[in-house]
């Protein structure tokens, strides 16, 4: 299955579509994460003649090693993309401007379909976290329950190294106005 948007089948006004794709179909591959479930995409297309305003929400699960306890963990990723698609003749300058903008796509008036797979793939890749669990997690490891606080554990680790004490004594003068 693909995420094919058949432009002529869309009614004027709002249209809702849904696509469930496998990560392999989208070419999603990451050295740190696996994609254990399908990539669900919910698309809302607002059509006005040959203008198509596309808003998509993509959700999927990723699996990988917890950076705290190294156990296998899964987390949900949510991504979005928006696109204004126009079917019309365009000058080379308009095409270059639309390409630079990134959110506008101008296609030939004879275009009947648009494959959304590349847009879905890009949105997911851009929203992949650096690690699992993400910083938005509640601070505890989802498997072992250990608090992820980065505070030093002992009183000795909290002490300031005496070699740095001299730096605390430095006073900086404020620059004079006009200099």
Quick recap:
With 179 residues, the protein is of the alpha+beta class. The chain has helices spanning 23-26, 92-101, 117-126, 155-158, 165-168, and strands at 4-6, 13-21, 39-48, 51-65, 72-87, 104-107, 113-115. It has a 5-stranded mixed sheet with strand order 2-3-4-5-6. Strands 1-7 form a two-stranded antiparallel ribbon.
What's the SSE blueprint?
Blueprint: E1 4-6, E2 13-21, H1 23-26, E3 39-48, E4 51-65, E5 72-87, H2 92-101, E6 104-107, E7 113-115, H3 117-126, H4 155-158, H5 165-168
Parallel strand pairs: 5-6
Antiparallel strand pairs: 1-7, 2-3, 3-4, 4-5
Which percent bin holds the helix content? 10-25%
In terms of quaternary structure, what is this? Answer: single chain
Q: Tell me the strand order in the biggest sheet.
A: 2-3-4-5-6
- The global form is flat
- How many helical stretches? 5
Q: Please report the total strand number as a whole number.
A: 7
Q: H/E order of the elements?
A: EEHEEEHEEHHH
Please name the defining characteristics of this protein.
two-stranded antiparallel ribbon; 7 strands; alpha+beta; 179 residues; single chain; flat; five-stranded mixed sheet; 18% helix; 5 helices
